[in-house]
Design goal:
This protein has about 80 residues and is mainly α. It has 5 helices and no strands. The two termini are about 25 Å apart.
Length: about 80
């Protein structure tokens, strides 16, 4: 139903890449897109989306986040993607 590949291809040229200078790697684009869509579908603010990812296992699963081994995007990261 959702054209994931087309949406990812549209956003990818603008999504930040890991630089040679180092720093924290960016979250996978597909994960951030899924988080953004859930945020819109459920009318969640950036802090509420962060909390939902921490508290709701089905939202983490849909976003492709494994809470045990992966970090969860904070509200500032979610805001930056939304502005992108």
């Amino acid at each position: 139903v959702v054209p994931w590949k087309a949406l990812i291809d549209l956003i990818e040229p603008y999504y930040p890449k890991t630089s040679s200078k180092g720093g924290r790697p960016a979250y996978p684009l597909a994960t951030m897109l899924r988080i953004h869509l859930m945020q819109q579908w459920y009318s969640l603010s950036d802090p509420a989306m962060e909390d939902a990812l921490i508290e709701v296992p089905t939202m983490r699963r849909f976003a492709g986040i494994d809470m045990v081994s992966e970090r969860i995007p904070d509200e500032t990261t979610i805001l930056a993607f939304r502005h992108l």
